[in-house]
Automatic annotation (TrEMBL):
Domain Peptidase M20 dimerisation: 222-315
Organism: Bosea robiniae
InterPro entries reported for this sequence: Amidase_Cbmase, ArgE/DapE_CS, Bact_exopeptidase_dim_dom, Peptidase_M20, Peptidase_M20_dimer
Name recorded for this polypeptide: Allantoate deiminase
Superkingdom field: Bacteria
PANTHER family linked to this entry: ALLANTOATE DEIMINASE-RELATED
Keyword ATP-binding: no
NCBIfam families, per database record: hydantase, PRK09290.2-5
Keywords recorded for this protein, A-Z: Hydrolase, Manganese, Metal-binding
Quaternary organization: Homodimer.
Amino acid sequence: MTQTLPSAAVLGARAFAALAGLNRFSDEPGKLTRLYLSPAHKQAAEWVKGAMEVAGLSAFIDAAGSVQGRREGTVPGAPAVLIGSHIDTVKDGGRFDGNLGVVAGILAAQALRDAGISLPFPLEVVGFGDEENVRFPTHLSTSEALAGAYNPAWLEARDSEGVKLGDALVAFGGNPAGIAALARKPGSIQAYLEVHIEQGPVLEAENEPVGIVTAINAQSRAQVRVTGVAGHAGTVPMALRKDALTAAAEMALALEQIAAAHELAVGTVGVFRPDPGATNVVPGSAEFTIDFRAPKDATLAAMDAEIRKRFGEIAQRRGVGLEIIPYARAAAVPMEPRLQDALAAGIARCGSNLAGRRLPSGAGHDAMAIAAVAPVAMLFVRNEKGISHSPLENMTEADAGIAIRVLIETILELAEQAK
């Protein structure tokens, strides 16, 4: 059955050519910045839609801004196999994060179509638009739409320029009123598969091109506002200051200490904004974000309690106000054992030299949202030094080809199981 399918080498070359086309679309010249509902996102969505149609999928851009494609199967009413990832990026991001998974799904669908292979279930590919959640304070909003868990309050959220998400969605060509209808019916998806670069160093360290994800870590995000008293940098004595920036800085260091004390946990302050931000003014307020993650929900809850306690103690000692505003929280998401085994079978079909290493994901993915309505599994692909969310993000054409071939073989494994 698989003799007419393209080799991993051919698939890798096709993937890199496709990625070069997709990654032309950026909001910043000389960088890859493609934020949700931006002009570059719109261009990329149209490109993905066209690529899906070339691959034999019926495609459209949905009400929330995701791109969906579908090829019908031979068994009427059979639940679909859905392959997905995202096409939005962080600011000045990498070429492969998210984009690889979308391209992999398209190329897998195209290879199966070209080989004349019929499947007993519909095959779908989706390119989500809001996985990174950089522009608006949302959480996996476009995949949550398919999961029927879209929060209508997100439509009122504003970006750093004051643009409301709902308005940006309308300008993009989406339809806020149509988001609820995107929710998938229970039982309509038999498997969600996502191919993604590892964004970590494990596979490279073990010289393995691909690995099977066991679970996605629990995570929480919040905005923190510290309010002190602004004053003249030259006239306010140190003992009388209520410096919001130094209080916030101490809180950031406390987060680092809390995360380091919990096994496999991490904590990050990614945004830090003092106000008024003048050289000769004691900052009167400071805002920053916190992002903390752990393999277990209980560990995350313990970290949350400790963060609130430590931040509160710092604020009280320094005489400043404190507000912690959570805006995203996700429980740990285990991958479906049956689908992990299907990926292992797909890897075995591709050669005995592949170990099929199993490992957890410290990063969040759209699979977290889809897990509420379907069994999910992820295939990690080795990336250089584990660097991601950076223009230094890199991987090989050979590894991309292996990953896509594994994806194809996994789809064929699921087809055999359906007989």
